[in-house]
Amino acid sequence: MSTGNMNLTLKVWRQKNNKTKGALVDYKLADISPDMSFLEMFDVLNEQLINKGDEPIVFDHDCREGICGMCSMFINGRPHGPKDLVTTCQLHMRSFKDGDTIVVEPWRAAAFPVVKDLTVDRSAFDRVIAAGGFISVNTGNAQDANNLPIPKMQADAAFEAAACIGCGACVATCKNASAMLFVSAKISQLALLPQGQPERYRRVQSMVAQMDAEGFGNCTNTGACEAECPKGISLENIARMNRDFASAKFISEETI
Amino acid sequence: MSDINSNIPEGELTSKWTKYKSSVPLVNPSNKRTIEVIIVGSGLAGASAAATLAEMGYKVKCFCFQDSPRRAHSIAAQGGINAAKNYQNDGDSVYRLFYDTIKGGDYRAREANVHRLAEVSANIIDQCVAQGVPLAREYGGLLDNRSFGGTQVQRTFYAAGQTGQQLLLGAYSALERQIGMGKVEMYTRHEMLEVVKIDGKARGIIARNLITGEIERHFGHAVVLGTGGYGNVFYLSTNAMGSNVTAAWKAHKQGAYFANPCYTQIHPTCIPVSGDHQSKLTLMSESLRNDGRIWVPKKKDDNRKASEIPEDERDYYLERRYPAFGNLVPRDVASRAAKERCDAGYGVGASKLAVYLDFKANTERYGRIEAAKAGNHNPDKETCMRLGTAVIKEKYGNLFDMYAQITGEDPYETPMRIYPAVHYTMGGLWVDYNLMTSVPGLYCTGEANFSDHGANRLGASALMQGLADGYFVLPYTIGAYLSKEISVKAIPTDHPAFVEAEARAKGILDTLINIKGTKSVDHFHKRLGHIMWEKCGMARNEKGLNEAIQEIRALRAEFWKDVRVPGTADELNTELEKAGRVADFIELGELMCIDALNRNESCGGHFREEYQTEEGEALRDDVNYAYVAAWEFKEGVNFELHKEELKFENIKVAQRSYK
Q1: Which sequence positions of B are flagged as catalytic?
Q2: Cβ of A62 and B169 within 8 Å?
Q3: Closest among B227, B260, B232 to B446, alpha carbons compared
Q4: Which of B55, B62, B111, B172 could form a disulfide linkage to B39, CB 3.0–4.6 angstroms apart?
Q5: Inter-residue contact A206 to A132 (CB < 8 Å)
Q6: Which fold has domain B267-421?
Q7: Which residues are the active-site ones (chain B) (predicted)?
């Protein structure tokens, strides 16, 4: 099936479920094309495993366009692999060399327990959003969209924060498994927009409380999250969240 | 000739919806609290419906197969969402959006549904902005618009190349808010495997917990499927890897008619296939056709680099053939034109199955404008290109980056190579005006239904339809049914109908595991995709379709004898999930070919080679085929045709022309 000429050794984390221990298992792959995506290389490997009668490696993936945030491989010690600003599904084999050994592990964080092989449970992120990552507006209550002009710079800044795909690379790369970049991106998006003001301080408090309850670690400003984020979400968001969180402490109860 | 009732309300087209929604029976708040609604799918159509119904007070359960509702494939929509706001003062109106959509759909959609869609389109934008969706804005702080194919106004709202993501995250946040309040119970990593029917009505679903493999029974007074399209029947498409027809197909097998399955949208601007390893295709947004010009060399088999081919040796074939709409003709027209050039030997790139999408002219134009803004009224070419590239980068940066990442080429330097790919399916479960399928109590929204796009969907209309259905249509129309169900108590799930449906679902899983054949699921999926693309793809003919039907039947028999599904059914088993989906795709593929064979005309995305004008345009047969083909599933794998006649009372049906 493959048409290329790269030979690779893969060391892949295999773990049957969250009750059993896992381990790295070695696989040899031949004739890999540099034009393949990293996940297509895994498709080739899985096809070979199935043909041999083995169980294929389970990994999360869906859109394969870098936007759904489902793919989540920790490749050679980096979430989404060696290239900046791409997800695993958009990583191509031309970023590797013939003869390379590639180590592939799942996201590792207490709040993201391994489900099977390279698949982890990221439902903690949903619960953080459910705690306040929204504007409380029911369907049918909206005024005409252009009744609320928003300066372009402000709208663009909100958009940049909103570009987060919720993949969890920030957590996976952080030595504290902190989710501050993810949480602050949503808080920033809404804090930068006029629609987000009424609930601004209540939101930051409830989302941070939920983040802590999920078992994510604290932020020690190493900046690894920003460096590894496939969507380039900025550390400024964390600063903004911290400001809002601190401000919330000094604002009277009635306004929260 | 209709033998099915679409329940379109009486009255003037323009006041039908307003009047109807004011007279739909209501369910009082205390009754809503005891009425349960199941929503399958958490994309734009599912999440918006789940959030809205919960806000109204219904008890909602929502299911998705992904690990989070935020990952549904609506997230990948790039270009934009249409709305008849007329913010650009360019003559847009509800009527014009309605007209463009009917015409774009090649006169194969229902007038009443499409008009309603156009009416609520403006509300969607208002709702999304209120939710904090960061749509693109101008310096004055007002919303920006751009053009999409098949229209001559600018009515498309957008958020860079991530419009679907931003709209879905808006709907997702509304959904999570309801989850947080305990008003929606969310079931992630669950796949619907059966519809449960009691006394002819949909009363629940059987779902598999994909982590534990456990089979679960869920009751609902009504069931809503917002489960997306079936483009993955072609194996290679722009759909997500997990996108599937299973929920819709199981509903079909329980009596829901499947309408117009052959209407497939082949999107003209996708990154070409690079090899056998390819697992999916990637779209380059239609919005790029605002600023990109499509061309091929005038000389056959021209092997020169794009930059070495002088201007007068380039054939801008869309501008040549369709001067009025140029590069912004509808998708079906643009796709066929690309195929025509490549088939004739003018294709580019290594495979020769590609055409150029070139941004140079508009980059230079933008650069000139930027230079003038800075006071330089006589800029040199290099300055223009430098300034213009910055403008292009702001508009389409993420798409250009994606292209570079996938192909290894820099689209700022050389034109993109593009080719058509399967993108969207206009067909789907048949629904009436209320979005109810032919099974009472079973509803279908978004791409999963057939309703609004006729034989070809216009760009930026999928997001519009998904959100229209979920926020503004279904929450009203479902009241017509639920208001009669208020006395029905929740049915315990040990009812024989649940037991029987569960046994059916389990039976299929066990069979798949126990075949223990020699070939992987992907092996069969690829072969199915090949048959579909070659014989039921961009162009179809009687001979090919007849062959395809036979080949698919043989493939089905082979699949059930020889597929290999490793592992067990009581664990996370992605091969088992895929096997169930591919089994359904194989049956659907046959129906698509049967439908394409039945429709002896060309319309929109359905192009039968036997039926074309002298200029190679689609030739409709309005006398014999102005109907919706709604297929009923019959024992074995057989299908019976029902027809819903399409009546055009407000639009003059004409040969579509974009010249």
Answers
A1: 331
A2: no
A3: B227
A4: B62
A5: yes
A6: Flavocytochrome C3; Chain A, domain 1 (3.90.700)
A7: 331
